[in-house]
Amino acid sequence: MESNSVVLYRRDKPHKEKIILSVEDCVSKVSGILDDMQNQLHAEACDNLNRNTNRDLKTFDDFKAFFTPKNEEKPEIHGGFVHAKWCGDKEMEAKLSDLKVTIRCLPLEQSGTQGKCIVTGRDATIDAIFAKAY
User: Fold this and answer.
1) Rounded Cα gap, residues 78 and 97, in angstroms
2) pTM of the entire structure?
3) Per-domain residue ranges for the chain?
4) Which of 29, 108, 114, 119 is the most exposed place for a label (fewest CB within 10 A)?
């Protein structure tokens, strides 16, 4: 390696993968490398989110089963989200607290569809993301 070279190790690649650039090339190529890293990390995060989000639950019984630990004495860590309809009834949030579940967010981009509230079964138009509260 020349003395006017720079060695870059990417944090999103295997630890032995490196890029050797001249000092002159470093300035022009680092921006593209950082953009590539950002795109790769964002894609991985989106994939992880989609793999861990259940969009198929329709009833409160299904919802309850999803969030109830299989072993009550030694509950497993539950790392999943549920994307479902919610009627907006604040009083129903108490029903969620029994399961130690909270509404994590109301997505900014709502689907605009109508369905049944996962908690009450009433008509609902609001999309919500639910998850365990630890």
Assistant:
1) 15
2) 0.74
3) 5-51, 55-132
4) 108
